[in-house]
Amino acid sequence: MRSPFRPDRVPDPAILDDHRPALRALERRGFLRGGLSLGALTMLTGCDVSDSSSIGQALKAVNVLNDRVQEVLFSSTKLAPEYPESRVLKPPRFNAYYEIEDVKPLDRATWRLELAGLIQDKRPWTVEQIATLPEREMTIRHICVEGWDYIGQWSGVPLRTFLERVGADLTAKYVVFKTGDDYPSSIDMPTALHPQTLLATKYAKEILPDPFGFPLRLRTSTKLGFKNPKWITAIEVTNTWVPGYWEKLGFNWFSGL
Ligand SMILES: Nc1nc2c(c(=O)[nH]1)N[C@H]1C(S)=C(S)[C@@H](COP(=O)(O)O)O[C@H]1N2
Ligand SMILES: [Mo]
Q: Which terminus of the chain has fewer Cβ atoms in its 10 Å neighbourhood, N or C?
């Protein structure tokens, strides 16, 4: 179970000694900034500060992802591996910075996707309008930094197609997302334009259930789970870097390939 981060409980830095090699490997790869606080790691793993094996799992997940998708990074045409439909996990595994019981579903009737920044046509979109856009389906591996993963199948309009449709400046640096649960997130433009980056509306061919981000979520094939915001309410194209929820706690913004 996810325990709230308790800044009053001062972690014993010696716990990180078990993980020096993994930490150093991640620092070398630029994934973690040097001296990431134990508090931040603890919060992400959602476990007791004395739980050394969870920290180990989190570090392993990050390294596994880097190994798997490293290649894809260097080419916008190279795709992350896809999997047979028979391996899709149903229902998917839920995660958020709070428990599933505390999910506040978004109202289909009043929901709008707001657009801001370097975009020509900033008219907001309804659920029905989004549903008219061309769709792509992909069956890929979701990797959470907590140390677990699953095969999921998502469909929706490629983010590139959507950005082209609304006249976004594709030479801008970042695409920033706002969500219904105050979980800001942003990605670099090359990732936004990658063919396996979708604004997903479906999981396993069904409309996204509420806990998994209805009506619209990001799904990238080349980033850790936390870089895939659910319950998107606004998209901004900008040259100004905006840190996301976990980045504010010290996690590397790129977090992927
Ligand atoms: N809006 C929002 N999006 C979020 C999160 C969140 O707390 N809020 N958690 C992230 C994390 S850490 C993970 S692993 C995935 C989980 O997605 P899933 O529940 O569809 O498996 O959502 C990501 N997107
Ligand atoms: Mo995650």
A: N
